[in-house]
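#dry-run=false #mode=assembly
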Amino acid sequence: MKLFENIFKFNGGIQAETHKAISTAETIKKFGIPKKIILPLRQHIGRLAKINVNIGDYVLKGQLIANADGNVSAAIHAPTSGYIESIEKLPIPHPSGLPDFCVVIITDGKDTWVDKKPIDWKKIGYQKTVELLISSGIVGLGGATFPSHLKLTKKDHGAKLTTLIINAAECEPYITCDDMLMRERIDELIKGINLLHDFLEFEESIISIEDNKLDAIEKIKKAIINEKNISLKIVPTIYPSGDAKRLIYLTKGIKIPKNTRSSELGIQMFNVATIVAIYRFLEFGEPSLSRIITITGNIKKPRNYEVLFGTPLEEIITDAGGQKINNQTFIMGGPMMGFALPSIQVPVTKAMNCIISAETEMLKNDAPVLPCIRCARCAEACPVELQPQELYWFSKSKQLDKVEEYNLFDCIECGCCSYVCPSNIPLVQYYRFAKSEIIEERQHQEEANIARERNEFRLSRLEREKIERAERNAQRRAQTSSDEKSKLVEEKRKAIQEAMARVNKEGDNSL
Amino acid sequence: MLITIGVIIFLSLIIGVALGISAIKFKVDGDPIIEKIDSILPQTQCGQCGYPGCKPYATAIASGEADINQCPPGGDDGIHKLADLLGVDYKPLNEEHGVPKPKSVAIIDEKTCIGCTLCIQACPVDAILGSAKHMHTIIEKECTGCELCLPPCPVDCIDMVPIKETTENWKWKYPVHKLRVDERATP
Amino acid sequence: MINNYLLIILSTVLVNNIVLTKILGLCPFMGVSKKLETSISMSAATAFVLTIGSMTSWAINHYLLEPNDLIYLRTITFIVVIAAVVQFTEMLMEKHFPFLYKMLGIFLPLITTNCAVLGIPLLNAQASHTLIESAFFGFGGALGFSLVLILFASTRERLEGADIPRPFKGSAIAMTTAAIMSLAFMGFVGLDR
Amino acid sequence: MISNQSPFVQDTTSVSYIMFLVLVALIPGILVHCFLFGYGILFNIITATITVLIAEYLILKARNYPVKPFLTDYSAIVTAWLLAVSIPSIAPWWIIVVGSLFSIIFAKHFYGGLGSNLFNPAMVGYAILLISFPAIMTKWPSAYASVSFGEELKLFFFGISNYDAIASATPLDYLKTELLLNKNIDQVLAEPIIKANPLIWVGIAYLLGGIFLIYKKIITWHLPLTYLLTLFLVASLFSLANPNNFAPFYYHLLNGGTFLAAFFIITDPVSGPTTPKGKIFFAFMVAMLVYLIRIFGGYPEGIAFAVIFMNICVPLIDKLSQPKVFGHD
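#status=ok
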């Protein structure tokens, strides 16, 4: 009972079936080296990575093949050794289903490492270490794929970071990759937390975990008995407790204000898998090359795999025995926020934490979508305390300024509103539509502003040129005396007239 | 009868003086509405509205000279916004001025271009680079898709290419679901 | 005394609402109720005109028309006075709220021909109200007008997203809504006893 | 083709389920009414249900909308039942038909049908009937005048024959008229028409139904509780101030369908406010207006007018009573 002390319950949320046991019966299986590796350049939030290899190059495992382009970007490494076959547009796991640039590597099966260089951050200092981390390719592995080096600051807007929260909530149903990681690799996690704790000089480190992961909780408790810096916070199983702002509230009772990063209030949050990745990079010099991924749902042999990035998803599905009931639909991410993949001919990416082979009831979308009856169940379920019924009403009728007035951009698209809606309205779809519509409109506005500026600049330039020309003419006129000038003009005119007359005559003759 | 006339004249005098004084006191100049209208217009500067640019069209709307439905690139949304701003009823686009097209940018076929600079002079936003006798290039980001460079080109080397959808500019579509009872158009 | 004034206000706002029971001033009611903001500013403008108009009309009626036995001139003089007040309001607005001025557009000068605005001074004169009673009556009428106008505008904003059958879109459904609002106001009958 | 967007899992509650439970919660009240006042109310309910179903079907067909999902959402039937139990059980059939048609066509489908109506359809129908046919709409059967089944049928089809024998004013109406005759409140309350009126039991049955709905989380506590509490407070205040002229609170709570209004009428989700603060304000204002009309107004019961008036205010209430968004100041 004491564990539940100081739980700051946020508004709403839902308690759906978790379906986590499906994929936790088996241990994490290390998936072998595929024949072909397809590495999309778009695997993170921010700018595309810049390729620095050529077709036909031989690359080693862990070799940098694309650099981070600027600060908000992440590097990409070869997950195993082999030859670069091509760089082309191929299907990637993206909700649009559109292809994007990928680097294709034909593996040689030798798995030869580059020279791994462990980093002794104490020796080379904080600044140097962070610079090195930019080339680590590590991004948030909880699914958001935000480049991690940007979060490794000691201060944000003058606020010193004091609290490290380790996000082990994993609130989405079906997903168990973090759970399994904690069960099997707790040592690495604890070492990683200690490393980060010292590296960024935190005052406290808290592991926040939902109370349904009993095994993992046991393991953590045992592991932190002698760790005075690390504490454990068990939070109730309410989706979306794993959302950063919600989890910070559950753990510390602090509501992070709108448009503010938690780090500005001294709190930084990392996902467990990300911490392990950072640990492995600093301790062993291993960049981000693989991740743990849950294969679950309507599948014959559900379990967690550790997979190299770029592995074709199809091969993993085949290894898991294929679908129980064949419907060819796979969902990437959790059932609440994920999206259906256009096909399984896509590679595994850094964002891919879970693949759910769709259960039959997930395909049942022939239930009628009735009008909203304003029952406000969605408002009760909304963890951000928005008014989903109003957002829907205005998104549906495309009154975008009103949608914004009702704080559309605070929506985290968690799907709680759609989950509870008795009319089966795909509310989140409407919000996504409205958001991208507004964003596009803003872009157009910006483009229009630039165009206006350029047009005004051009008009003023033409005006200036006109004046300058007039001035020049006036000057020239002033130089030649008016008499002379008129004479000149007279002569010219005469010459022209004569010429014209000649031409006319010739024309007549020729006719 | 006299009294009646007297009363009316007296009233008129008082009111006239009062209004005259306030007219001087509350005199205004300038019209802030033009800026507002201009900010709604898409700034393609294409001239399809019959005015030489977006600002002149905005001025014409503000003075009541032009209607709000003469801007094809602004599309239906633009007309709705203008109607909203000016408190008038929405009216569909006047097709005399053209029809909305998907946003495109001009691309110069650099093999055919003879470097005549005519397009450079036509471009309202200075989005074409090049000098005489050298082939020209369009700065794609700055191109508004106004098509003003097409007619002057003597060798027809400029093409309008619609912008393609990529993962970068992809956006979520308006939801369509089975049995969309709440959005069905009445027949 | 105060009771009497309160009753005037209650009566003009709820029971004898100028728009919904007297059916006066329907043209701005339908015309300026598309947006909440414009309806609020229209209400303010009308309230201003009504209160000032009622008082000046009373003064003219009391000091100019009645002593001189010119009651038949009421309508025309009231119209002139109201027109002047409207003109004044218009200038005031153009100077200080140019934006509102543009948005209200034609409806601002149309306050002049708003039958509610003329109706209230005439009703005042008919009921031989005192100056303060006239002011309260004018203000109450304006309050009632504002109340229904603002409520009506907010419902119309909501209706914007409703799946209204095409034949009923626009003015048709606005009229229907006004009818049902009127129905609700019938329930207040007798409250001013 | 799968719609490729999340969430892929869903709660099983549906509109039909919600509306069905509302119907279930109405049943005890209807049964008690039947037991005390005869079968007239069943005729009302059946007629209203058939009328709305036919009207709804025809409109859906005319608008080219799918019929099945809308007829099986039960929302039209809820409207029909609420209207039917508000109309006197000895009213002739055409009253019910006219009221139901107004509710469904005028108040609901003009606005676009389910989910779009601004006003509570049942109350619009009721208010139209009340101002159009006040005589019929205020004559309820006396509790102990035994009416045979045959006579009920006759009343239903052919209207009133020997009216006074079976009909009487409702207690609210009676009290109002008597008070106008300068009678003392205690005197009036002691008279059998009020003292021995079993309408109270109907009210209590509705109360039970309402508690069931709150228990099932179909409605929240905000609306009914605020409504009842406000009515209780304002009635107590007035009767404490002047016990001779104003009836005590229990009289207001137990008469005139107060519980029906509190749990079933003002809780209509479509035309009501959605925010918690908005709900409280809405219910408070409805209760105040109901009391105002009951005591000072021209009609004996003001629930319909109060609800319609407050329905007009709902968009504004919703707009102004937005709860604070997470992380906003």
